[in-house]
Amino acid sequence: MPLYLIRYSEIGLKGRNRAYFEKRLVENIRTVLKDKRLKPKIKRLQGRLLLDVDKEIDLKNIFGISSYSPCIQTKAELKKINSESLSLVKKNPKTKTFRISARRLDKRFALSSLELNNKVGAFIVKKTKLKVSLEKPDLEIGVEIINDKAFIFCKTLAGFGGLPVGVEGKALCLVSDKNSVLAGLLLMKRGCSIITVEESKIKNLKELDELAKTFKCRALIVPDTLQSLKDYPIDVPVLRPLIAFSEQEIKQELEKYKSIL
Amino acid sequence: MPLYLIRYSEIGLKGRNRAYFEKRLVENIRTVLKDKRLKPKIKRLQGRLLLDVDKEIDLKNIFGISSYSPCIQTKAELKKINSESLSLVKKNPKTKTFRISARRLDKRFALSSLELNNKVGAFIVKKTKLKVSLEKPDLEIGVEIINDKAFIFCKTLAGFGGLPVGVEGKALCLVSDKNSVLAGLLLMKRGCSIITVEESKIKNLKELDELAKTFKCRALIVPDTLQSLKDYPIDVPVLRPLIAFSEQEIKQELEKYKSIL
Questions:
Q1: What average pLDDT does range B67-95 have in this prediction?
Q2: What ipTM was estimated for this complex?
Q3: Looking at CA atoms only, how far is residue B27 from chain A in angstroms?
Q4: B237 shares a domain with B135
């Protein structure tokens, strides 16, 4: 049963309703995993989510997630942390140098992050032949203390960050090519829900206004650049997220999201 | 009399009217230097501009310029290139290792870029005690062969790139804060000319439409993000270049252009 510690950055930064953002992210993760017929258990911790799921999964493409780590959970007690860290080291037999990177998110825990680094590090050195390397260790063991639990991991995978899809309301996205999908993605990353409409299925651009009203969309998203700048007969604001991008920047962004596109 | 070799990247990439873009860039450089009461001579070479001006200047902020180098000009003859390269080395007395980076933009020149590297490099080694380091030289001497001239330099300064202001027509920019200046800058970098209008001096947003007509603006530029999304009563397209930026990305962009802002 893999267990994942999930981090999100921007939600915490905003002076907005953090709980609402967190709930939306939880909901979005549930939706994605439900599509894969998985039944996850998700807990909201202090600035983190804890996901318990039947098998290994990829969470990279869920906007709002900045990073995530497959982890071991144990009590926030030095003895337990030592032994679980040691077990992680033993699972990585090629390791010669290591480092402990502890973070005490729960300040009630008796040891500071630095003290925890030193104590767990000393224990591993005593029990193995490994050396500590702060600069470029073969293995970095992360320890996060949250509430009365410790989460221990040696792998952190990057997500795209951004905001959870849905926190900023709905927008209609006019889709014709890759650039228009990119335009939609960039606004999903800012929290928009997207209703897509294929340009080829539209007889008259005036239909867009009707569609926006039907689906209660706050805006229309189009892939216009200055070279393809058009006006659209629609009452809601028209968003052109690619308007200040060069061709090279558009290529770079497409490359960044190729796992989604 | 400093001489500058100026490079521009995107102009060449476009399938559009290259000569028109180059002329606009020349015109923009003239305007900036005229404001400083300088009288530059500017020549269009093969994919480069050559600027001859009374004193040292900063060209970083002129959109369209990707980089520029203060340079020495000489005939495209190996003997001349050797002696001018040697004089540059002597002007940098702390140098211990060097490299020659030649580019033959004019294919009529007898030596290939590689041959030129080797010959000039060998000459410098013979005349000095310096060593060649291809990896991390103290001094890199650039040689560009264009038409029947060689341009020799040891410093390349970065510009912002983009397109020359003015090649994409005029836009009205509603200015209220730093973000709105950034919004305008991003579109100037895509080639727009900007007419600014201070929001505080506008009594009613309907005045914008009149201003756009008066100044023949193709678009209105505003700093809206999803959190500050507004609709504007104007007939031309509304451009919101910051619409897909996070707060952090806006900060980064502001930092990038702090020499202008």
A1: 96
A2: 0.89
A3: 22
A4: no
